[in-house]
Design a protein that fits this description.
By secondary structure, the chain is α+β, with helices and mostly antiparallel strands. The protein contains 6 helices and 4 strands, in the order ααββαααββα.
């Protein structure tokens, strides 16, 4: 079924595949701009952010996005920064261990959200250096939009 969540193995394969050789301010702009263009094309009411080493390099809110979307982005990005994996990956890891993210880690849900839509910006042979996130769609759709944009940016 199309709405089934991907397995942890599938999410790990995405993260392994979608690594950068470097990540500049221009890369952040291009990636964020591509996400905005896709959202405009689809009429998606989303917010978008790209961060490297704690520095927000790109941020946008399309028509229909709200300040709550910015809060969701921050909460999802905290998961990426803390665990070094995408927010959906972290969620799915808990699910496959027979629990929930909230029960397993006991982190403040107002600060951390293991919901799809934030993906690590990883540089090969360096590791995670930032994150790209979308909020405004159901979590699986947020995840898929980000992954598609990263894949297109990397030419894969």
């Amino acid at each position: 079924m199309a709405d089934d969540f991907p397995s942890l193995a599938e999410l790990a394969a995405e993260e392994e595949e979608l690594q950068f050789t470097g990540f500049t301010n221009d890369d952040a702009w291009d990636l964020g701009s591509a996400l905005v263009a896709a959202a405009r094309r689809d009429g998606a009411p989303v917010a978008v952010a790209v961060v490297r080493n704690g520095h927000r390099l790109f941020s946008a809110a399309l028509p229909g996005a709200t300040p709550d979307n910015d809060t969701w982005i921050e909460r999802k990005m905290r998961v990426v920064h803390r665990f070094g994996h995408g927010s959906l990956y972290v969620r799915q890891a808990s699910v496959e261990r027979g629990t929930t993210f909230e029960a397993e880690f006991g982190l403040d849900p107002l600060r951390y959200a293991a919901h799809g839509g934030a993906f690590p910006v990883s540089v090969r042979s360096v590791g995670p250096v930032g994150a790209v996130a979308v909020s405004g769609l159901p979590q699986l759709a947020d995840h898929r939009v980000v992954v598609a944009a990263v894949r297109a940016h990397l030419g894969r």
